[in-house]
Specification:
mainly alpha, His_PPase_superfam, single chain
């Protein structure tokens, strides 16, 4: 009969320990010219044609 016993993983039992690090980096950019419409929410405001050109140039 096959031995079905499993050992629980314990990182302290590893012979060569790895150092694992993580980094999350967020960068937010605001493009230039946008619509000016008081009837629209911030989510609905779009870039003007000039703003789109400026976004591509940057």
């Amino acid at each position: 009969m096959e031995n079905t016993e499993t050992k629980q993983f314990n990182p302290e039992n590893r012979e060569a320990k790895e150092i694992i690090t993580s980094k999350i980096e967020l960068r937010f950019f605001r493009h230039a010219e946008k619509e000016s419409d008081k009837n629209k929410s911030d989510e609905e405001i779009e870039l003007t044609e000039t703003g789109r050109r400026q976004a591509v140039e940057k």
